Every structure is written in C-alpha cells, then in structure tokens.
Amino acid sequence: MPSTGSQRAQDPLRHLYGILLVALLALNLAGCDQGEQSDRIVIRFPHVTAPGTPKGRGADAFRTLVAERLGDQVSVEVFPSAQLMNDDDSLDALMFGEVQMIAISLSKLDRLTHDFQVFDLPFLFDDLEQVKRFQASDVGQELLATLSDKGILGLAYWHNGMKQFGGPHALRTPADGAGLNFRIQESDVLQAQVLAFGGIPQKMALAEVYQALQTGAIDAQENTWSNNYSQKFFEVQPVFTETRHGYLGYLVAVNQEFWNGLPAEVRNELNAALAEVTVQVNREAESINQAAREQIEASGQSQIVGLTEAELEEWRNTMRPVWTEFEGLIAPGIVDAARGSASAAEGR
Ligand code: LMR
C-alpha cells in the first residue's frame, strides 16, 4: 500500500533525528577542516556501496578527474561503504548543505516525492537500455529538477543494474516467496511489491543487511549482482533467483545553493567532468554486474537459478497490480513515458 497519512505523519520524528545527526556531523566535519586550506572548495560525497561497484567506481573517477582538472581549486572527498552515513541521513545532510553531493538510489527518494517511484514499478523495464532511453527523454530529464524546491538539484542518472531475489530457497513462483521476511530499500513501491506475493517487507539500510541475513532476522532480499557480491550476501544467502524484476539506479544530486554559488567556470568544468563519468558508469554497469554474477557462481557458496518464461510470467502477473496502486500518485505522463521507452522498437 502507498503511505497513508498516518505513516507520513511519523516523518517529522525521523526528520528531527536526521537534523540531530546532521548537526553532529557538522560539528565533526568543522573539526576536521581545521588546518585545511580555507579557499579550496570541498565537495563531500558520501555513498553506501563498495568502491568496485558502478557507483563506487563513478565516485572515484569523478574525484580523479576533478583533481586532474581543478586540483588547485576543488577537492572531492569520497566516503564509500556508508563510512560517513547511510542514505537516509545523506538526504538530510545534502539538504542542510553538510555534504555537497550524493548518488542515492532512486528508490529512496520516495519520502520526498512520488515521481521517482516510476523506477521501482516491477517489470516495467526489461534492461538498462530501456531505462537509459527513458532517462534521456524529455520527461526523464525534467525529473532531474523535481527536488529543487527541497534544495536538491539532480545532475545525472547513474545505473547500477537489474535486481534479483536472494533467499533461503529458489523463488520460482510467487508462492515460494510467501511468508518470507524480505529486506527492502526505503520505498513504498517495493513494500507493495513484496506484499503482492505474500512476503513480509522490512525497510532496512544496506549496511545492516548482511548481519540480518546471517542471524535470520530476515530471510530474503533483492539487489543487483554487484551489490550481492560486494556486500558478500552470497555467503549468507543460499540461492539467488534470476528474476531481473526491477531496476536499481541513482540520482547524482548536489546541494542547489552550493552548486549555484560556485564560480561559473568551476561549475562548467564540474558539469563536464560529471558528464564524462556518467557515460563511463552507464557504459560499464552491465559488465560490472555480469562479472559479479560470475564471481558469485565461482564462489560455490550460493546457487544461481534461472527461470522459465512461464515462471517469469507468473511473477509479472502477481506484481503488475502494484502499477495500478501507484500510477495515480506519480505525476501524470511519467509512467506513460517510461512505458513508451520500454516498449519502443529496436533501432534506438
Ligand atoms: C540498497 O540499499 O540496497 C541500495 O540502495 C544500495 C545502493 O546504493 O546501490
């Protein structure tokens, strides 16, 4: 179900918690700054995945390019693997200007707007090429500015990949997932998706998932091959079922006031560097995920199960009602544009 009014009413408490964390972080970072050159522009860029993932590589490549081209004026500080904060706190930190740049899963923006929920609709996109076409469309590009009233400016989309289910056994049909505790990202669409097949959804930060699987607090989860491998989920997850049922990608976003306050020539150079890195991330994402899949297979610690077309069709039919539930909440035209990109003929 989408968030009810009473669920949303709990948000102020969570935001208060976020504000306190951000205030502590500000004190901490101010302490770290002592002795640093005060005229250097610092871009703090926290994220939650490992350095070898599509996002990890992208963040590092951006830092390297900026160091090469603007090294005397700008420094990018990358904090991978949730070292500095988790995604939820990073949104607050970005809004308050305590960090300047993030690359956050599109799924986790749903506490701010319904519009990015289109990316979570199950089985809407078959592959990254379809997503890319939608993101490049006028509607996809307009979405980047959706959060500007919150002080957040989207600059680019980065892919991770398509998600697979991991569980205690193969999830050949929706009935195989019924009754299992599923970790999901902070997303009401993903919550509805798990409820649709009788699973029990639990919203949880990425950094907590390994231990939750290990201790049996959760039974199952969904993620891309690169996250399943780099977070070592294959050590504690006996079977992965190759469903490719949903997309995981990122909004690369900056604090709008910070960005608009930069000297124009610096902003232009940063935009150019980001554009180059974006092409690279999105070109390499699929092969990084395939390499991670092979590494999981080679580990011998986890089995990978493929599905027949009939089994996939049963999953599609079970999850499709989720679209109807959310179509009315997402701004008009967005779902249709995404469906149009997904069904456009070859020759793109
Ligand atoms: C997750 O929490 O599973 C993902 O959002 C992590 C990521 O950033 O890829």
Tell me which CATH architecture applies here. 3-Layer(aba) Sandwich
CATH class: Alpha Beta
Mean pLDDT metric? 91
What would CATH call the homologous superfamily? Bacterial extracellular solute-binding protein, family 7
Outline, from the CA principal axes? globular
Q: How does this structure look, described?
A:
The chain is an alpha/beta fold and 348 residues long. The chain contains 14 helices and nine strands. The strands form two sheets. Strands 3, 4, 5, 6, 7, 8 and 9 form a seven-stranded mixed sheet that branches. The chain has a two-stranded parallel ribbon with strand order 1-2. The chain starts with a helix and ends in a 5-residue tail after the last helix. The structure holds (2S)-2-hydroxybutanedioic acid. The site of (2S)-2-hydroxybutanedioic acid has 10 residues, from loops.
